[in-house]
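Figure S7 source data.
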Amino acid sequence: MSAKVLCVTQQKGGAGKTTLCAHLAVALAAGRRDVTVLDIDPQQSLTTWFRKREELFGEDDGLEVEAVDDLRRGSQVSKVARSRDIVIIDCPPHAGNEAKIAIRSADLVVVPVQPSPMDIWATRPTLNLAAREGKPVLIVFNRVPARANLTDEMLAEAKGYGVKMARTRVGNRVLFAGALNEGLTAGEMAPSGRAASEISRLAREILRVTG
Ligand SMILES: Nc1ncnc2c1ncn2[C@@H]1O[C@H](COP(=O)(O)OP(=O)(O)O)[C@@H](O)[C@H]1O
Ligand SMILES: [Mg+2]
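C-alpha cells for the predicted magnesium ion complex:
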C-alpha cells in the first residue's frame, strides 16, 4: 500500500493550514481510511489538538498525528506512506527547505488562502515551489465571508496563477476554531451544520483530484 500524500502548505501564517489538516484528517478517516498527519510546524498546534482528542477518545488506529522535526529528505514521509491510505503534511508558515521537501513528497499540494489581496499575493512562493517540483496544486479559499464581492475579485486574481481552485469554499465560521480548542472538529460538534458539509465536500473533491 502506498498512501496518497497531501501537503497542506502556504507561507502565510493564519491561512488555515492546521484547521484544514485537522478537519480533512477526521473527515477522511471517517471514510474508513487510515490517515496520518505529519505535523512539521515547530509550533505543533495540530499535535496539541490531537493530544486533547486522545484524552477524549483514546488511541485510534484510523487517525494518527506525528510531530516531525526533520523530514529527512522525504524518507519520513515514504516510511509512513507505506502503511497508510492517506498522509497529510501540516506545513510551517514559510516556503523554506522543509516545506520544499514536503511538496516534493506530495501527490497534491493543497494551498489554503484567505480571500484578501495580501494573502493571495503571499501564495506566490508556494506556487512557484510546487511548479518547480512539478506538483499539482489545489487552492482552497478559506475563511470566506458571507458577502462575496471581494471573493469574486480575489478569485479572478487567483485564476491568473493558472492553478486549480477548489470548487468548495470554506466559510468564516467560529465553530472551526471552537471545535479545535476542544480536540474536536466542527463536524463533530454540529454534524448537520454548514462547516461539516463544506469539509466533507472538500474531502471528496480532494479524493477526486488525487484519483
Ligand atoms: N474557516 C475558518 N473560519 C474561522 N476561523 C478560521 C477558519 N480557518 C482558520 N481559522 C482560524 O484562523 C486562525 C489561523 O488558522 P490556522 O489553521 O492556525 O492557520 P495556519 O495553520 O495556516 O497558520 C486560527 O485562529 C483558526 O481558528
Ligand atoms: Mg498551522
